[in-house]
Write a structure and sequence with these properties.
7-stranded mixed β-barrel, Rossmann fold, 7-stranded mixed β-sheet, 15 strands, Elongation Factor Tu (Ef-tu), domain 3, alpha+beta
């Protein structure tokens, strides 16, 4: 019985790149079940690729095989790796930081460097710029189909050596918790922070309570307000801002039926700082 195979990339679907990956996988095994996580990662954005994996992986059946290809270093000396997570999933990807959140938040049980001589689409040896098709889709399909074992992918490597991107941890200063805006809920423009629900609870703000929020871009404050911490969007009026716990149990900021990101020109990144403290006065 084959495993599920899930693709993620920054290729988009305007050309044939994703279709070529599908074609390789189905050529390996026509009975595979292939799904897409997303192909709309912004070009070269390894951080977002890492975040979309952690947003998704745990909700798929164990043994599912993920192939993530956001690879600005394709053709360079960066490693190609496959990992088995503590949750029982497999991920095949360039070793360029794509596994940052999975490594930190789920954990990696075992990692192997892909042997690109044995695990490569036949007759692709002279192709150096489409490893997503020639190595990752091909290897992922063979693993998902059960034609190779995880141990057949290549030599074991130290899980601690798996590359991680720089991560800024939240910090508490007096009665204020300060974090970063990690990512956007792209379609709706909500801001997803790196502040966990548990960390936010230290402020002692109940549902329905108010928090003072400040958003800084480097040293420039772009937003300050006192807004409500609520369970859902329906707890505030349309057009009203809110603070809530997102689907990953982290703190987020939004506008009900509006885009906070677009309204205040806020983007994700380590230079975007966000702080919360319990409001002492009503707005």
């Amino acid at each position: 019985m084959s495993r599920l195979l899930i693709f993620q990339s920054d290729f988009g679907i305007a050309d044939g790149a994703v279709s070529a990956m599908y074609g390789v996988a189905y050529s390996v095994c026509p009975d595979l079940k292939i799904c897409d996580l997303t192909h709309e990662i912004p070009q070269y954005n390894i951080w977002e690729a890492s975040y979309r994996l952690i947003q998704t992986v745990n909700y798929w059946p164990k043994e599912s095989v993920f192939v993530s290809v956001v690879d600005p270093g394709v053709g360079s000396t960066r490693r190609s790796i496959a990992v088995r997570t503590n949750s029982g999933h497999y991920i095949i990807t360039p070793d360029n930081g794509t596994l940052t959140h999975v490594k930190r938040m789920i954990g990696i049980t075992e990692a192997r460097e892909i042997d690109e001589e044995r695990n490569r689409l036949p007759n692709s040896e002279e192709s150096y710029t489409f490893h997503g098709r020639d190595i990752y889709a091909y290897t992922g399909a063979r693993l998902a189909a059960g034609f190779i074992r995880f141990e057949d992918i290549g030599p074991m490597v130290d899980t601690e050596s798996v590359v991680e991107l720089n991560v800024t941890e939240p910090k508490i200063e007096g009665d204020t918790i300060i974090g970063t805006i990690d990512i956007l809920d792209v379609r709706f423009g909500s801001l997803w922070t790196n502040i966990s629900k548990e960390q936010f609870k230290l402020l002692g703000v109940p549902y329905g309570g108010r928090v003072e929020i400040s958003i800084m871009n480097d040293t420039r404050e772009v937003y300050r307000n006192i807004i409500r911490f609520v369970k859902s969007f329906g707890d505030v009026y349309i057009g009203e801002p809110l603070v809530y716990v997102n689907s990953l149990d982290y703190i987020a900021v939004a506008i009900n039926q509006g885009s906070f990101s677009r309204a205040y020109n806020v983007s994700p990144g380590s230079n975007w700082k966000i702080s919360f403290r319990k409001a002492t006065a009503l707005p």
